[in-house]
Amino acid sequence: xxxxxxxxxxxxxxxxxxxxxxxxxxxxxxxKSRFGPHPFDAEGLIQFYNDNSITGFIAIDQYSNTxxxxxxxxxxxxxxxxxxxxxxxxxxxxNNSCTYAxxxxxxxxxxxxxxxxxxxxxxxxxQKGTKRIILWGGVQSSNNKALHFYQKQGFVTIxxxxxxxxxxxxxxxxxxx
Length: 177
Hints:
The chain is of the alpha+beta class. The protein contains six helices and eight strands. The longest helix is centred in the last third of the chain and has 15 residues, at 113-127.
């Protein structure tokens, strides 16, 4: 993995809205189709972030001053996923869990940026007492790059479901330092 000293990872702030919108609008159709926790317009983003259980994270390339990666973390489980996730038999699934949705700009994929943002998110989750991270809406089974990335980070598949193709629910148990 390369080292990028010019990359800053931080929590999303309201002053980052324009930069985030620029990032979202410049994603390829394929990347957009795999990332969908919220609408891609200003009003939709503002409404989405009115939920205090949601935190955004961004990576900024300081040379171009642009967002190159973006992740969303929601404390707890998504309402529409609770029954399916609880059905996998993991005790206490709803307690101290968060739901995670990452994305990386197309021309930055495969360069270690997703890992850098993920490490930042994990540390934030640990500080809040989160015990497990669950992928937001699972991951499409056909998305081999994402599956490989999540497995390298320690995620395990806990079940599968059908929605526009086969998807895998994946979970990462966080270890305390």
